[in-house]
Automatic annotation (TrEMBL):
Taxonomy, superkingdom: Bacteria
Domain (Methyltransferase type) ranges: 38-131
Molecular function terms, GO-annotated: S-adenosylmethionine-dependent methyltransferase activity
GO BP: methylation
Organism, scientific name: Nocardioides turkmenicus
Record's protein name: Class I SAM-dependent methyltransferase
Entry-linked InterPro entries: Methyltransf_11, SAM-dependent_MTases_sf, Thiol_S-MT
UniProtKB keywords: Methyltransferase, Transferase
């Protein structure tokens, strides 16, 4: 991993994924979380402050040391204890059915083995538990989707493996998750931003 990907990209992600306009999607993903929560792709802690009062603990999976360092000020102010438990969402160091709920925001686009990570979430979330999610991904608009496919290689190369063309609801359904709530829309912005701005958020049962 080069300096750009290891040192620069986490700071770009901190700025872009930490924008206030994403907070409504993050809040939607956090709604319904409770108890011990595994959060895959914790990043710089942008969800801190949005967890419901029912959350008692966050076990964070974050591969980037820089992102974890950037999260330190937020973690120090958090009323919910946060511990880093792993680096790879596809290999969670957690026992079966050992967490109450799960959370993933703006990370499924980047995880190399995304199917493996979702399978791991199903394994570690207790029966009856849920997974909250907010992710950008493939647009249903053919014109936007064409641009997403054109830009996908550039996006992956310069932004840490981030894909523009992952169909988030399909990925979740393929792993057996059942949708309780799904909201999809474009983020506010000019038309040229649409390839980056189609977002899916909601909750699925594991």
């Amino acid at each position: 991993m080069g300096i750009w990907e290891s040192r620069v990209v986490p700071r770009i992600v901190d700025r872009t994924c930490g924008m206030a306009q994403l907070d409504p999607m993050r809040k939607e993903a956090c709604e319904g979380l409770r108890g011990r929560v595994v959060e895959i792709g914790f990043g710089s802690g942008s969800n801190i402050g949005l967890y419901p009062a029912e959350v008692t603990e966050i076990v964070a999976v974050e591969p980037s040391d820089v992102a974890w360092e950037l999260s330190a000020p937020r973690r120090s102010r958090s009323s919910v204890p946060v511990s880093r438990v792993g680096l790879d969402g596809a290999q969670l160091p957690l026992d079966d059915a050992s967490v109450d709920t799960g959370l993933v925001t703006f990370s499924l686009c980047t995880i190399p083995n995304v199917a493996g990570a979702l399978a791991e979430l199903r394994r570690v979330v207790r029966p009856g538990g849920t997974l909250g999610f907010a992710e950008h991904g493939l647009s249903p608009d053919p014109a936007v989707a064409r641009w997403q496919h054109r830009l996908d290689g550039f996006q992956q190369r310069f932004f840490g493996g981030c894909h523009l063309t992952r169909d988030i609801p399909k990925l979740l359904a393929d792993q057996g998750f059942q949708f309780e709530r799904l909201h999809q829309d474009y983020l506010p912005g000019p038309a040229p931003s649409k390839p980056w701005g189609y977002v899916s958020a909601g909750r699925v049962s594991a």
